[in-house]
């Protein structure tokens, strides 16, 4: 009988032991990466754990309609629900845009999921135009600045949710966001223009761009979610981003079941 080396304690893994037939391998908890010795672990981002600065950029234009805007808020909160929110892990910011841009709350203002979700629920619907370019410029210039709570050395993720063609120019701001190292996800519903979404999305576009015909069929974008971003990236950053992608995929699957 082959003994389970993890169960017997006959291993030298610092954090976690994973049994394999007749052997074992070491693994690390969330927020840590395995060192080259295959045994010990190092905290990601200089001890910040699975740190992530995430800002939602939400279309509040008239075409969204109030009932769908409530679905968008639910979408945000279900993602927030599955994050580890703290000063050392995930921080969440929220920006709504229509004919103008309004910061609902900056990164780090709320220190726990309960407070973030309450603020999202209170967000009022702007119900005007669609100035996506102006919103992207705000994201680059303000949302991910230190004065608005962004942390140095922490992965920055922006998720843009829109349902229509922008009424202003987006190319420069979209390029600047990606050139700044922000990982940009573009989610489009309804009349959203696919070439604009692709322009917003980070490379590879197929992993960062999602579209569905209407809010009721949002589950279809789950098929487009892929997890192939870890090949040439820092393992700590990868872990944070892949966790984010997985949470979005789980959320979409749950919406499909309702």
TrEMBL record:
One of its GO terms (molecular function) is calcium ion binding. It is found in: Secreted. Gene3D superfamilies: 1.20.5.30, Laminin (2.10.25.10), von Willebrand factor, type A domain (3.40.50.410). It comes from the Eukaryota. The keyword Aminoacyl-tRNA synthetase does not apply. GO terms for cellular component: extracellular region. Residues 53-225 form the VWFA domain. Pfam families: FXa_inhibition, Matrilin_ccoil, VWA. The keyword Metal-binding does not apply. Keywords: Disulfide bond, EGF-like domain, Glycoprotein, Repeat, Secreted, Signal. This is MATN1 protein. It comes from Tichodroma muraria. The gene is Matn1.
């Amino acid at each position: 009988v082959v003994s389970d080396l993890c169960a017997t304690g006959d291993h030298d893994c610092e954090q976690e032991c994973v049994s394999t037939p007749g052997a074992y391998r070491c693994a690390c908890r969330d927020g840590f990466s395995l060192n080259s010795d295959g045994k010990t672990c190092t905290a990601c981002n200089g001890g910040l754990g699975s740190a992530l600065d995430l800002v939602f950029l939400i279309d509040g234009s008239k075409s969204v309609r109030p009932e769908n805007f409530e679905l968008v808020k639910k979408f945000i909160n279900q993602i927030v629900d599955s994050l580890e929110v703290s000063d050392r892990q995930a921080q969440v910011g929220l920006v709504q845009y229509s004919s103008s841009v309004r910061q609902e709350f900056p990164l780090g203002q709320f220190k726990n999921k309960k407070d973030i979700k309450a603020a999202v629920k209170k967000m009022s619907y702007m119900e005007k135009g669609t100035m996506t370019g102006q919103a992207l410029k705000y994201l680059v210039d303000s949302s991910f600045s230190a004065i608005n709570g962004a942390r140095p050395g922490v992965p920055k993720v922006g998720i843009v949710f829109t349902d229509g063609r922008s009424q202003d120019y987006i190319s420069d701001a979209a390029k600047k966001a990606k050139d700044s190292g922000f990982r940009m996800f573009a989610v489009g519903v309804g009349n959203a223009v696919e070439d604009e979404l692709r322009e917003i999305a980070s490379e590879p576009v197929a992993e960062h761009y999602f579209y569905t015909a209407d809010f009721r069929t949002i589950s279809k974008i789950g098929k487009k979610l892929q997890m192939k971003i870890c090949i040439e990236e820092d393992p700590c950053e990868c872990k944070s981003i892949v966790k984010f992608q997985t949470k979005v995929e789980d959320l979409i699957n749950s919406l499909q079941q309702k």
